[in-house]
Amino acid sequence: MSDIRHSLLRRDALSAAKEVLYHLDIYFSSQLQSTAVPIVDKGTLELVEEFIFHVPKERGVLPKRMSSLQELQLLEIMCSYFQEQSKDAVRQVIFSALFSPQGNKADDSRMAMLGKLVSMAVAVCRVPILECAALWLQRTHAIYCVRLAKVLVDDYCSLVPGSVQTLQQIFSASPRFCCQFITAVTALFDMSSDDLIPPNDLLEMVVTWIFDDPRLTLITFLNTPISANLPVGCLDLTPLVGLVRWCVKAPLAYKRNRKPALTNGHISKLSKEEKEEEGVGDRDLLYSKLHLSILQVLMMLQVHLTEKNLFGRLGLLVFDHMVQLVEELSRLVDELNPLNATKETELSLDRLAQALQVAVASGALLCTREDLRSLCSRLPHNNLLQLVLSGPVQQQPPHSAFQPGFYPHIHTPPLGYPARPTPPAHSQHPAHPPHPPHSALPAHPVQPFLPGMAFPYRPIR
């Protein structure tokens, strides 16, 4: 390895980086022929960090920097390499060797280069890079995934108006990347402050993706061996928790965002931006569509969990995450109470009630009725939420056949109350003569809640 390094030291920055990439290809291609799990040794990592990310090996040595033009040329070389490499295993291991965080001072340069490479891959639709990035997002700590998501949001939703269309078009090219990207942006924009509310362009794009194909949110879950241990701190298998958080917190979060400031004890005049209500209705419709799609996905999960023999064993909505969501919602309600946010509070609680009911019924959320009662005890009274908490969810046994349209009864007696006694049997009455048949009524067309999507009941808007 020392001979390779001495040879690279005599080259210019771009030539040395190209040579390291060529070395990685030979090194890992050879390893994959003899072992299924290649080993990235320390010497190879040091070459990558010194000649691609320009972290000097010796102290006091000035790093060999590339110019902006050389950096662009290197990104094009990487794009071409990953596009032309026909072996997926080689692509994945080289991508991991280049961009997996090591917890050292090279990580900032590593993340900066990764953001530029993935942003370029989106712009020119390089599917192999997007697929590598999807696996990277699945295996890397959420802190770094959020950083990559922020770069893409800044590039395509903030800097250039209208550029979000470029990002939106990758939906058909790499659904796997889109699923992981949604998971990352919901972790980034958790609505905990006004700065962490998703931009309108990003919201519209995500809702369009999921509304067109709700199964998009399940791609990672359906294609991941659940028996494998995922790294600690990585993103969730699905973006469902983050999307439920968006739908539940949105009414109150946007209400907080429009909160007027106090000046000398008086409410100051609202700015022009705060006065503008144009687009609010469209945004509310987006969250309504998103809420509908999430309920549909939760109802699908019973089939998939049963097929994988995971019904009652794996909860894709982790109960601890729901505890955190309810705590955040409770703080929002307390914060906005003086502002008379009754309408927004009711909408948030209605959505929470529906999400909890369908998630528990479908096996996506594993908890008892007492857990739910304790969870929601601090929230204001809400009729729908109280109805959901009033009786046990009758989950379908995992070994039984799935019945389409199954939905648990919620009008059962509350826990601790005796059931209604069974009435005594009546004596058998003589059979009535058959009634004459009625003429058939004309069939009426089904009226779906939203155009093009039928649903068994109306979601809360």
Automatic annotation (TrEMBL):
GO cellular component, one term: integrator complex
Origin: domain of life: Eukaryota
Disordered: annotated span: 415-445
Protein name (Swiss-Prot/TrEMBL): Integrator complex subunit 15
Source organism of this protein record: Lepisosteus oculatus (Spotted gar)
Organism taxonomic ancestry: Eukaryota, Metazoa, Chordata, Craniata, Vertebrata
